[in-house]
Design brief:
The chain is mostly helical. The chain has helices at about 1-15, 20-55, 60-65, 70-95, 100-105, 115-130, 135-155, 160-180, 180-195, 200-215, 235-270, 275-290, 300-305, 310-330, 340-360, 370-385, 385-400, 405-420, 430-445, 465-475, 495-500, 505-510, 530-540, 565-580, and strands spanning about 460, 480-485, 490-495, 545-550, 555-560. The chain folds into three domains: about 20-215, Clc chloride channel, CATH 1.10.3080.10; about 235-430, Clc chloride channel, CATH 1.10.3080.10; about 450-580, Roll (CBS-domain), CATH 3.10.580.
Amino acid sequence: MITFLFKIRLILDRLPRPSPTHALLLWAALIGVIGAIATIIFKEGLSFLQRLVSGHSGSLVAMAETFSWPMRIALPTIGGAIAGLLLMFAEKISPSSATDYMEAIAIGNGRIPVITSLLRSISSLFTIASGGSIGREGSMVQLSAMCASVAGQRIGMDSTRLRLLVACGAGAGITAAYNAPIASAFFVTEIVLGSIVINSFGPILVSAVVANIVMREMPGYHPAYALPNFPAISEKEMVLFVILGGFSGLLAPQFLKLLKFSKQIFSRIPIPLPIRLAIGGLGVGIISVWVPEVWGNGYSVVNSLIHQPWLWSSLLTILICKVVATAFTAGSGAVGGVFTPALFVGAAVGVLFGQLVNTIWPGATSLPFAYAIIGMGAFLAAATNAPLMAILMMFEMTLSYQVMLPLMLACVLAYFIAQVTSGMSMYEITVKRNREEKNRLKIRGVHVRDLIQKTDTVLPMSANIDEMTKIFLHHPVKYIYIIDDNNHYQGVVALQDLSVVMADNAANKSQKAENFLRRDFLQVLTPGMNLSEAFQHFQVHQGERLPAIESPENPVFLGTVFKTSLLDTFFKLSQMESVTY
């Protein structure tokens, strides 16, 4: 028996073993399955709470319509209070732990706390099931990413691979929510990671595709949005879609500013978290007395907008009320996403725009549902700062090549207009990355010439011991800069070299600066260097100041640059950019 097992061992040792990259692809596929299951569990939990409250599950709007007006007010208020209690409990368990999957991927070590994440997800369940105007996709993605984090820690992955595995979990969660695996992979790479690299994009895409396959095999599966075939677009009508893209680029930052303003208002109210979320739910409940369509994330209303005709006055009322209700829910601190509400706003704006152009040019333009599809993509591109993700998501939802040209034009234009007008993003990690990139651009725009200062610690080659000694006595420096008759930099005289001969008075009288010259002092700056290049020289020199010359070919001595001036400039640029936001 032992001989047989030993032979098996030898055979297994001869088999090719997968590289770490190949192994990660296998783990990514497994995370796709786990992420889909986590999403299904969340959906079932939501359905259970809905049945518990109303006796049936499904559309939250339909549920709201069956309730009396006191129930429409009471249920979101009570749900908000329960959600707030769960969040307060989660904060007491781990007050300083970061649970956001984006931070764990982008700047963290990939570790997501389990208990805190579960409590926040359950809190989100109560907010959504009670009619909160917020997306459920945020908690779905969080749960999927948390499962990936736990799995990666159990198998002993290092922080780099663990972060990538968590990214795979996030991609799986987004796919399970929206049935768009390619866009989901781009969401994680474009928004969370900030760059599309095949070593990270490949595993995330594998995880997203596997999650999509698992979701499709589940009974009762259906896409989030049932979008009709996109019509053929004439060249003249293309201009209208471009205008819609520009309009979306102007509106999306205003939507984000409203959400930010609401959060600031709620944060200034000195009340416990459960009461704060209850107030947010109360606001939604009061609005729903007249407009029950504000309940939930807007899935059912968007599908109705696309497939049924609407009066523009009714749609405009619902749009305004939905935005205000979302501000109440998100501003109060409820856990959830605003990705789906942003799609709702984009669809409503698109339909209103489509109705307007159909009124002006009846029969000459596409039906409003076409403008709803383009509006969803353009508004999403502007709100997330991820136009490529938005284009791919709408393409995967429609599976129509005819949508691509107007969609690309509208999304790109919306993105650039939003960037120029505000630079805001739905996700804080994107704002931080944009801020850092702008800081880098500002730093590259500032040059050493702006920091050069005149100095008295410079002497000619013929300077004697007394002159050099006076410089060192009057200035707390380690080096004197030496120039020739043409003001060309030649090198330095170091204090430690001079101190060796100070005791010999006879030798002092005959020594000149050229006798102590260090020509190998090569850490010099030039006016055209940017701050990053100058800082690299300081890292090598480890001193407080460096000499500046015109150029290596023409080493005219210009003065000195102090490290403190360099660091102060870095700090001021960072402060200026943070004030902008």
